[in-house]
Amino acid sequence: MNLLIFFIITAVFVKEMGVSVNRAGGATSGGGGAPSIVVSVMPEGEIWIDGRVVDLRAVRANIERLRAASPKSGVLVAADQDATAGLLVEIVDQVHLAGVYDVTFGTN
Question: pTM (2 decimals)?
Fold first, then answer.
């Protein structure tokens, strides 16, 4: 009986720990902006931009070319879950060198 009373009393004082996150709402995303430049990363390390396989060294040039055609476009890096983190970092570095800092991530 004492144990039951102890748990009832302590349950009132225990606060759940957590972090509240403000997520972007639907009103600001999708529809109105320029289409994203999609960089797909396959599990084998292949990089696809604009429907063709490109080498890591050509990512910057391709992003610059596509960005010139659509200056307000951001870049979406869509990576397979088995793609290496190192390759993703190198791709983002190339995107930044191309002058694009609006980079979002997704999964295939």
Answer: 0.69
